[in-house]
């Protein structure tokens, strides 16, 4: 198959379904997949498990609702989709990034051994710039503009970059330059001074060209 789409927005994940599929609307389902983090925890030196959240719509949602169950080993392909979330209490709005499932494959129950974990995505878009996170050492945010008039509106995807790679991006790329980004989804948390914990789901940039 030959595609004339200008940009790519495609992710893959394989892991174990955690809990039951939840359907807040007849044409929408939400479910969680348990995967192993590819980056070791700097404190424990181990690759920890993390829970990634997915949403499916329309016909895909109906298929998942009838076919996917707790503890199933699944492989999903998905795309990133930005939406505006309105807080009903105060009316404030914020952008939320969903991982919207395009296809799902349930692995046969007859398979033996541990599940192979996968967590990988690719986005083509325009480089808009790199910003250093002032409150952290060696962490940067990279903004990519994604455009695909055939399916999506203009969307801004923010990626987290660790270490030396973040230092070089502003020298290597110009604003508006077309780039391809490889990323993985990673959960993280930060403990505030008051003792409360903030939880984050980041798109961690691994390669850019």
Q: Would you mind describing this structure in some detail?
A:
Helices cover 9% and strands 57% of the residues. With 209 residues, it is mainly beta. Strands 1, 2, 3, 4, 5, 6, 7, 8, 9 and 10 form a ten-stranded antiparallel beta sheet that branches. The radius of gyration is 18 Å and the shape is globular.
Low-confidence segments, given as residue ranges, are none
| Main β-sheet description | 10 strands, antiparallel
Order of helices and strands: EEEHEEEEEHEE
- Tell me the β content: over 45%
Oligomer: single chain
Quote the distance from N terminus to C terminus: 24 Å
Looking at the structure, what is the overall shape?
globular
**Structure classification:** mainly beta
Strand element count: 10
Mean pLDDT: 87
**Number of helix segments?**
2
Helix proportion: under 10%
List the helices and strands and how they pair.
Layout: E1 9-25, E2 28-36, E3 49-57, H1 58-67, E4 73-86, E5 93-106, E6 118-132, E7 139-146, E8 155-162, H2 164-172, E9 178-191, E10 197-208
Antiparallel strand pairs: 1-2, 1-4, 1-6, 2-3, 4-5, 6-7, 6-9, 7-8, 9-10
Descriptive terms for the model:
209 residues, mainly beta, 10-stranded antiparallel beta sheet, 57% strand
């Amino acid at each position: 198959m030959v595609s004339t789409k200008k940009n790519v927005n495609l992710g893959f994940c394989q892991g174990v379904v955690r809990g039951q599929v939840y359907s807040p609307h007849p044409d929408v389902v939400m479910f969680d997949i348990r995967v192993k983090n590819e980056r070791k925890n700097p404190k424990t030196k181990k690759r920890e498990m993390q829970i990634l959240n997915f949403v499916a719509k329309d016909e895909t949602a109906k298929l998942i609702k009838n076919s996917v169950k707790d503890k199933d080993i699944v492989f999903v392909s998905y795309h990133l989709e930005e939406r505006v979330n309105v807080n009903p209490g105060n009316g404030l709005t914020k952008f939320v990034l969903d991982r919207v499932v395009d296809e799902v494959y349930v692995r046969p129950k007859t398979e033996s051994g541990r599940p192979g974990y996968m967590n990988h995505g690719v986005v083509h878009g325009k480089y808009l710039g790199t910003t250093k996170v002032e409150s952290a050492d060696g962490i940067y945010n990279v903004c990519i503009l994604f455009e695909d008039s055939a399916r999506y509106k203009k969307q801004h995807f923010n990626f987290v970059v660790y270490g030396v790679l973040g230092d070089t991006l502003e020298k290597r790329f110009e604003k508006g330059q077309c780039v391809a980004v490889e990323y993985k989804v990673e959960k993280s948390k930060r403990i505030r001074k008051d003792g409360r914990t903030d939880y984050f789901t980041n798109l961690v940039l691994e390669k850019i060209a």
